[in-house]
Amino acid sequence: TSLAALDAHLVDCRACPRLVAWREEVAATRRAAFREETYWGRPVPGFGDPGAAIVVVGLAPAAHGANRTGRMFTGDRSGDFLFAAMHRTGFANQPTSTSIDDGLTLRGIRVTAPVRCAPPANQPTVDERRRCAPYLGRELELVGGGVRVAVALGAVGWQALLTTLGEQGWAVPRPRPRFAHGAEVRLERDGDRDADGGRVLTLLGCFHVSQQNTFTGRLTPPMLDAVLLRARDLASR
Ligand code: DU
Ligand code: SF4
């Protein structure tokens, strides 16, 4: 399998009735500002460098952001904040992300999510999170070279990563480390040194880039830049 094959399978997924209904309803009704647009209205694949050593894991597509444009973090304020930071820190070729054909490319980094369909109120249920988890698991396995750093934007991504990485043989400490901004967990995995590129993976916690955090100053641009630079530092060791 390849990332392309995984994405082809993903975009046809209809496993969660509540989310299928919501993503399609939002796409059919639209928001006034986007009335003339055709919404994606389907599961959203990961985006960025297929050989990335760093993966950024958010929560789920936003109803009028990625659920509209079809690309992770694209077309809303969260994405504006995230991609501007990626551009400042040298991961993105441009600071804006508006549509799938806007020319944005990422180098050394990838953005994805543990839930691929827009949930009502940005709140997926436990069952929905469980059902969607294998897509993140497969993506982490398929990213070329092996992921060395995983940045969790918020507690949902943090929990999903710990579960998935634990299933993939990474030794997750007990009790489970708690999500916090700036939290850092070094994970190790036994096995063939040559097989997956790396035997150490670092999990980094960062407040989510939602307006709730960025408008209030809970997450500032320098804070996000610092996390991304820390990720690059760890990935290059
Ligand atoms: O067609 P492609 O080269 O596989 O690229 C698909 C998609 O991924 C395109 O929108 C650019 C993006 N991308 C990227 O951001 N960084 C890369 O290193 C390679 C591709
Ligand atoms: Fe499928 Fe995930 Fe969407 Fe559920 S959230 S329908 S598992 S892609």
From TrEMBL:
Gene3D superfamilies, sorted: Uracil-DNA glycosylase-like domain
Protein name per Swiss-Prot or TrEMBL: Type-5 uracil-DNA glycosylase
Keyword check for Hydrolase: yes
Pfam families: UDG
Matches recorded under InterPro entries: UDG_Type-4/5, UdgB-like, Uracil-DNA_glycosylase-like, Uracil-DNA_glycosylase-like_sf
UniProt entry keywords in alphabetical sequence: 4Fe-4S, DNA damage, DNA repair, Hydrolase, Iron, Iron-sulfur, Metal-binding
SMART domains: UDG (SM00986), UreE_C (SM00987)
SUPFAM superfamilies tied to this protein: Uracil-DNA glycosylase-like
Family the entry assigns: Belongs to the uracil-DNA glycosylase (UDG) superfamily. Type 5 (UDGb) family.
UniProt domain Uracil-DNA glycosylase-like: residue ranges: 45-228
KW Iron (keyword) present: yes
